[in-house]
Design goal:
178 residues, mainly beta, Jelly Rolls, 6-stranded antiparallel β-sheet, 5-stranded antiparallel β-sheet, 0% helix
Length: 178
């Protein structure tokens, strides 16, 4: 690539890392080594004892998600967070918490592809609160549960459930305690 600043003194600049994105937002660099490549799913597993800064095991967990599908396109169960016996799922027009003893879900949500949703969940109360949907924002809770999240002994899986095809299709960001 040659760049001119209005006179005849052209400078040569090396440019690399250009990508064409099929989605509505950019992803990180995908090394292709001369051939087309597909980005692998983002999956994070924070080892037991290493995710204390993200969740203490007490109180709510807040996460921002940008699904690669709209509420009308979603039909299969996708795992946003899995830790111990607690799950946060998104599917159809629902966002649901699941524990062996209780489930809580917020239904009737409407969102577009790549629309940011902020989800607050509390494993102790099965709370699920959604903000940022086109319509349907709100919260639901079915009461106290025996589910436990232990930052010392549990692996925190973000965007997937190990050994399952129920991986989240989208971006999960800003996992934090509420």
């Amino acid at each position: 690539m040659r760049i001119r600043n209005g006179n005849t003194n052209a400078k040569t600049v090396a440019v690399w890392g250009w990508m064409v994105e099929a989605g509505g937002f950019h992803s990180s660099y995908i090394r292709t080594a001369g051939a087309a490549a597909t980005r692998a799913e983002d999956k994070v597993a924070l080892a037991a004892g290493s995710w204390g800064p993200y969740a203490t095991g007490d109180g709510p967990i807040v996460v921002d998600v940008w699904p690669n599908f709209s509420s009308s396109e979603s039909s299969s169960l996708s795992t946003i967070i899995n830790c111990g016996d607690f799950y946060l799922y998104i599917f159809d027009d629902k966002i649901q918490t699941y524990t062996p003893s209780l489930q809580s879900q917020l239904t009737g949500l409407v969102w577009s592809r790549h629309q940011k949703l902020t989800i607050t969940t509390d494993p102790d109360t099965t709370l699920v609160r959604v903000e940022g949907a086109t319509s349907g924002d709100g919260e639901s809770s079915t009461g106290t549960t025996s589910a436990s999240i232990d930052s010392v002994s549990d692996v925190l899986n973000v965007g997937h459930k190990p050994g399952s095809s129920r991986n989240f299709d989208g971006v999960v960001s800003r996992l934090r305690t509420g």
